[in-house]
Amino acid sequence: MEPFSQKIIAWYLKNKRDLPWRTTQNPYFIWLSEIILQQTRVDQGMAYYLKFVKEFPAVAHLAKADNEKVMKLWQGLGYYSRARNLHTTAKLIMTDYNGVFPDDYAEIRKLKGIGDYTAAAIASFAYNKPHAVVDGNVYRVLARVFGVNTPIDSANGKKEFATLAFELLDKKKPAIHNQAIMEFGALHCKPINPDCNYCPLQTMCIAFEKKIVSELPVKSKKTKVRKRFFNYIVFSYKNQTIINKRITKDIWTSLYDFPLFETETELTEAEFLQSKEWKAFIKKMPYKITEVSKPFKHVLSHQLIIARFWEIKCEKPLKEIAIKNALVIQEKNIHHYAIPRLIDNYLLQK
Ligand code: SF4
After folding, report:
1. pLDDT in tens, 319-347
2. Which of 194, 215, 236 is the last residue of a domain?
3. What is the CATH number of the domain that holds 308?
4. Do 149 and 211 fall into the same domain?
5. Among 215, 225, 249, 281, which is 20 to 30 Å from 17 by CA?
6. Ligand 1 mean position to 155 CA, how many Å?
7. Tell me, what CATH number does 134's domain have?
8. Is there a domain that residue 220 lies in?
9. Is the pLDDT of residue 8 over 70?
10. Does residue 137 register a pLDDT over 60?
11. 194 lines ligand 1 (CB under 6 A)
């Protein structure tokens, strides 16, 4: 198995990107970068990583931070439970581990928000321990080079790929081996248009030989996308508006948005005005509709949100509309709060 590791490391040393989390062995920085980069492109994640490192240069700073501040810094990255877990784990490292990140894979794996992949990344990158990382890039490279067609999202597939990744791992150089295979998947053996013609692994690549590169890796399940229709109410009275803290177990927990009701379909203005949800919001408040936005589409991993913003000018102070968990704020202050990207997009076009 040696040639695989040697070839991939040689490729990496010539082609790797210069990324700040690659020049450190500090487990806190590595952990931060890995959590930020999950489901996020490197160019987008970089700005967040630099902001977090500047604001919280050590795990103790992150642990002490106010949760609202952490959420605000995370704003726009999505998957907000990652930010909450990051904060919880930072506090736990201070209380249960004397502020020192554990160096043992099993201990790292126990921490909230850290799965097999992240634990292997921290154990290998920070402590050079022989644990193989298996992320989307690794699945793709291994499936193609070794012609594995077991679905990567099946229990058998996960086991098979984890075993293969560990067998291939250069146990003396786990950090660089892991970095190399991930970087190779990200830059060279890409999902679409991999550069097979100039590939150091071409002679050993089964997918290339059998002309099945575009068929690998195999996934068994298609992600079901749930369509949701959000009707946001943007109340206004004398430059004030109402925002709502999301506390339910749904998307964007702990973030702020406008009062909202959800419907099965997109509403016409007549349907909106007749709906019991709207009547429950407005009660006896005198008002007029000043604007109805175009539908804003917002794509999440398993959901498609179609949101319309109903701008309502009230004729009495907003505190008379009693909404649970809502705050009456100056409109210009909304950016002091952590808000989902969808709300940001709406505010940007106003
Ligand atoms: S030959 Fe093509 S499919 Fe095979 S490893 Fe190289 S880039 Fe990937």
Report:
1. 888 777 789 999 999 999 999 999 999 99
2. 215
3. 3.90.79.10
4. yes
5. 215
6. 25
7. 1.10.340.30
8. no
9. yes
10. yes
11. yes
Q: What are phi and psi of 8, to 5 degrees?
A: -70, -35
Q: Predicted confidence band at 2 (pLDDT cuts at 50, 70, 90)?
A: low
Tell which atom from ligand 1 comes closest to the C-alpha of 140.
8
φ and ψ of 324, to 5 deg: -60, 140
pLDDT attached to residue 196: 96
Residue 312 structural domain: 226-348
How many Å apart are CA 350 and CA 348, to the nearest integer?
6
Same domain, 248 and 181: no
Q: Is the backbone peptide bond immediately before 217 cis, with ω within 30 degrees of 0? A: yes
8 lines ligand 1 (CB under 6 A): no
- Residue 221 counted as domain residue: no
The two three-digit tokens of residue 179, written as one number: 């970095």
Residue 34 annotated to the active site: yes
Q: What would the DSSP string read from start to end of 217-281? A: S--SPPPPPEEEEEEEEEEEBTTEEEEEE--SSSTTTT-EE--EEEESSPPPHHHHHH-HHHHHH
> What is the average pLDDT value for the chain, to the nearest integer?
93
- In whole angstroms, give the CA distance from residue 215 to residue 62: 43
- Pair 335, 187 in one domain: no
For the entire predicted model, the pTM comes to 0.78
